[in-house]
């Protein structure tokens, strides 16, 4: 049966409505999928950025912690150096005080003569040369000459060797030095220093661990040396 115009129009409208509905459903499906993919991508980007931020601040935290450790170590080293410097200053002051006290020995002529006797004989025994030159302060010349006269027979008795001792009358120890003597071989290539300064220096070096222990206590870092 032939369709009239009204039927044709109805079918066309019905088809158009169907196509439009299909198109709307498809569009809704595409929109939904797009939104889902967008949300997934957005979540992925958010998570990525959050991880980057966490990593950034974690690195920053580690850097700050490292800087704090370095600063703390620097401060500790500076404090330790200041303590060591203060200790060295104190020891230097004590040694200067010892020099001042030693300088007073020469004022007691009897005690200083006895000391020179020992210093001269000790230097001769240490050098053990057939010919030796004794050098002293100009103001000590006569006292050193007396000490040499005493030391020669003692030297011969102790070593069973003859010896010739000369007192240097051209070159002297500094007038403002503490005293004592220097003894040289005949060619002056070998020297034994028995001045009060050299004795103090030798003694301070030898006794420095004991001096530090008395002043500052035992060093806990050096227990294994005991």
Low-confidence stretches: none
- Derived from helix and strand composition plus strand pairing, the structural class reads alpha+beta
What proportion of the residues is helical, as a percent range? Answer: 55-70%
In oligomeric terms, what are we looking at? single chain
Q: Describe the global form.
A: rod-shaped
Strand content: 5-15%
Arithmetic mean of pLDDT: 87
Q: How would a textbook summarize the main sheet?
A: 4 strands, mixed
Tally of helical runs: 4
* Distance between the amino and carboxyl termini: 126 Å
Number of beta strands: 4
Q: Please write the string of helix (H) and strand (E) elements.
A: HHEHEEEH
Can you describe what's shown?
The protein has helices at residues 5-103, 109-127, 141-159, 196-216, and strands at 131-135, 164-167, 180-185, 191-195. It has 226 residues and is an alpha+beta fold. Strands 2-1-3-4 form a 4-stranded mixed sheet. α1 packs across α4 (196-216) and α2 crosses α3. The chain is rod-shaped and about 165 Å long. The N and C termini lie far apart (126 Å).
Topology:
Elements: H1 5-103, H2 109-127, E1 131-135, H3 141-159, E2 164-167, E3 180-185, E4 191-195, H4 196-216
Parallel strand pairs: 1-2
Antiparallel strand pairs: 1-3, 3-4
Helix pairs in contact: 1-4, 2-3
């Amino acid at each position: 049966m032939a369709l009239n115009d009204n039927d044709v129009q109805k079918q066309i409208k019905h088809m158009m409505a169907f196509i439009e509905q299909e198109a709307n459903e498809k569009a809704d499906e595409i929109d939904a999928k797009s939104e889902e993919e967008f949300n997934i991508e957005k979540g992925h980007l958010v998570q990525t950025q959050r991880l980057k931020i966490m990593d950034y601040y974690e690195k920053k935290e580690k850097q700050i912690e490292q800087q704090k450790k370095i600063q703390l170590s620097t401060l500790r080293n500076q404090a330790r150096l200041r303590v060591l410097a203060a200790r060295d200053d104190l020891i230097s002051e004590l040694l200067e005080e010892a020099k001042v006290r030693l300088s007073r020995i020469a004022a007691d002529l009897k005690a200083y003569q006895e000391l020179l006797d020992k210093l001269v004989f000790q230097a001769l025994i240490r050098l053990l040369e057939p010919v030796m030159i004794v050098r002293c302060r100009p103001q000590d010349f006569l006292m050193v000459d007396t000490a040499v006269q005493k030391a020669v027979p003692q030297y011969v008795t102790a070593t069973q060797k003859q010896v010739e001792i000369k007192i240097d009358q051209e070159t002297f120890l500094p007038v403002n030095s503490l005293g004592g003597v220097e003894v040289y071989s005949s060619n002056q290539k070998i020297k034994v220093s028995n001045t009060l300064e050299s004795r103090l220096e030798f003694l301070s070096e030898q006794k420095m661990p004991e001096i530090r222990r008395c002043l500052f206590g035992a060093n806990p870092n050096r227990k294994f040396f005991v």
